[in-house]
Design a protein that fits this description.
Helices cover 41% and strands 15% of the residues. The protein has 394 residues and is an alpha/beta fold. A seven-stranded mixed beta sheet has the order 1-9-8-5-4-2-3, sandwiched between helices. Strands 7-6-13 form a three-stranded antiparallel beta sheet, with no helix packed on it. A three-stranded antiparallel beta sheet has the order 12-14-15. The structure holds ligand T4K. The site of ligand T4K has 24 residues, from α4 and α5.
Amino acid sequence: MKKALTQKFCQNIVGQFRFDEPVYVTRPNMPSLEKYNKYLENIWNSAWLTNNGPYHREFEAKLAAFLGVEHLNLFVNGTIALLVALQALRINSGEVITTPFTFPASTHVLHWNRIQPVFCDIDPKTYNIDPNQIEKHITPDTKAILGVHVYGNPCDVEAIQKIADRHGLHVIYDAAHAFGVKIGDRSILEYGDISAMSFHATKLFTSIEGGALISKTKAQAERIYFLKNFGIADEEIVIGPGINGKMNEFQAAFGLLELELVEQEILNRKALTQLYRSLLADVPGITVMEDIPNVTHNYSYFPILVDPQEFGFSRDGLHSILRDCNIVTRKYFYPLCSSYSCYSAYPSSDLKNLPCANRAANKVLCLPIYGKLNTENIERITDIIRSIHRLGRS
Ligand code: T4K
């Protein structure tokens, strides 16, 4: 009886609030087609399509200046960039301590480099690898720590570096979510040995597909440059087993145009984040993330945690009713990487080792956020969430 009533009220919510067009978790901030066409014409006329072309060089220089970093290499996507980061540091055996609360790519690149991922629990506030849990996982086979700045929230970079220095380990950051993020005046990309970025279409800043590695030294940057081009140093010298990780001219041109838009995009997302936070503040069972002092955030995601007891519905229940209302939320990052069948047999994948990560994965839901969403959209989405809560408590 209660189930039937709930279903009926659910239908009422859907009937009252459903969006005609899907509201996706994110949308790329498209540049002007007219401007892109000019770039296309130039690419066509020059017939220079890839291999460090003029737009590639221009984008690389402008992006490095924009991000305030010295050594930046563009890549075709973020996954290949991460794969090459490990090769650049000659990490291709042993163990790397990492987080299970991330996109599959962060763990798969370890496997592809013949490294065993060792999963470490996360900090319940930032959802990033918890430095207090790292040292217990260090063994003679440990080569590095791979942290992910999830949702653009910085890892505890100082604590991680201290551990790495104490044990002679490399530090790599997956900064796929962290475009433009700073700690104080310093780019988040300057921490660790190498940081990897993603410019996929779903990212705050996109070059369709794309990525970059930010490294510490000129020598490292040079090695990365060779490795992403099959290891070719010149026509007759191959320095090592490289791969094809090059960004092409079409991506670079898109990236150049996105650079003109990204600051406004961050401002728009910041305003939407603040609105979400204020409108969700009084909804029991919904926890939002707050800004971290001294950090410049990029507001690339809007994750909430759903407490089923207080909210009245589980995260999955909320996800599914929102989907019926044509709102496409995502469970970034459920399931944990440690739960995939390819990794679940590792001792560190035991859920007893990962209580915070497991809790986050079971409760988190990323709500739609992108610059073109407007105030009314956010008000309507939060109205729906409030109505679902009332229904759950009735
Ligand atoms: N490390 C981390 C921490 C990452 O999050 C990622 C990628 C990587 C590494 C690897 O970087 P890349 O190799 O991808 O450069 C998406 C992206 O495919 C993935 O790049 C991203 N993380 C991840 C968080 O999200 P899906 O499977 O959720 O994408 P999809 O196709 O469901 O798209 C989500 C929504 O975005 C759609 O509902 C609508 C919108 N969308 C998507 C595309 C592709 C558009 O509006 N236009 C589009 O072209 O993985």
